[in-house]
Amino acid sequence: MHDLFVSAIGTDSGKTLVSSILLTAFEGEYWKPIQAGKPTDTDSVRNLVGEEKHVFHPERYVLQKPASPHDAAAEEGIEIRLEDFSLPAHTRPLIVEGAGGLMVPINESQVILDLIHHLGLPVVLVANLYLGSINHTLLSADALKRKGVPVKGIIFNGEPNEASQRFIQNYTQWPVLLHVRREESVTADSINKYAHQFLKTYHEYYP
Ligand SMILES: Nc1ncnc2c1ncn2[C@@H]1O[C@H](COP(=O)(O)OP(=O)(O)OP(=O)(O)O)[C@@H](O)[C@H]1O
Ligand SMILES: C[C@H](N)[C@H](N)CCCCCC(=O)O
Ligand SMILES: [Mg+2]
């Protein structure tokens, strides 16, 4: 099964948009284990891809403060623990979206990367190509490698930068599964278009 954890090189990188694309591509099921702040990503994905064709699993934690989960949880007197999380039962590919990047704390000692390892899912990493993103992307790559988490590939989101992309590809040797361009507005049509492109490339790498 093509279950995937969608992480990124930072927050606001485009994980929710990419999750909507992957959900559409696989006709899958969506789960955001930790939500910090409203509106929820689950609602955003639901609005983008429609309610009918997909399953939306309830978050394990919905925290009010739009902040790092360790901070948002502490504000409510909650301590998030890895043991709180297990994959929801699913029959179609499960797309799991993280919060922020890989090293975002979920409590005083553990980070999203520990959650990914705990759930045992391979990662698709969303990366932007702004100035500074090479560093953020390669640090993310090294963190994943150190933890032994498998990576299915990278998805670039936003403005292109050929020189940056080339270095990232050479360093990581990861498949580039998609490049989402900056869209004037994100519509069902654009999501369908990218889902189609993604699936074609994905099946070339993973027949
Ligand atoms: N390619 C794009 N074209 C247009 N808008 C985009 C694009 N990528 C992201 N956005 C917009 O940028 C904002 C942040 O993107 P998104 O919510 O997907 O980030 P995220 O990585 O899921 O953040 P979080 O860590 O909070 O989950 C959203 O308003 C989204 O619609
Ligand atoms: C609230 C925000 N949209 C995300 N859900 C959480 C981002 C945490 C980032 C923490 C950090 O890297 O400093
Ligand atoms: Mg998101």
From TrEMBL:
Predominant location: cytoplasm
Subcellular localization: Cytoplasm
Key words of the record: ATP-binding, Biotin biosynthesis, Cytoplasm, Ligase, Magnesium, Metal-binding, Nucleotide-binding
The EC number(s) this enzyme carries: 6.3.3.3
Chain residues that bind ATP: 12-17, 41, 97-100
UniProt entry tagged with the keyword Lipid biosynthesis: no
InterPro entries, A to Z: DTB_synth_BioD, P-loop_NTPase
Residues given in the record as Mg(2+) binding sites: 16, 41, 97
Residues annotated as catalytic: 32
Pathway named in the protein's UniProt entry: Cofactor biosynthesis; biotin biosynthesis; biotin from 7,8-diaminononanoate: step 1/2
Subunit comment: Homodimer.
Classification via HAMAP family: BioD
Family to which the UniProt record says this protein belongs: Belongs to the dethiobiotin synthetase family.
Protein name in UniProt: ATP-dependent dethiobiotin synthetase BioD
Lineage of the organism: Bacteria, Pseudomonadati, Bacteroidota, Cytophagia, Cytophagales
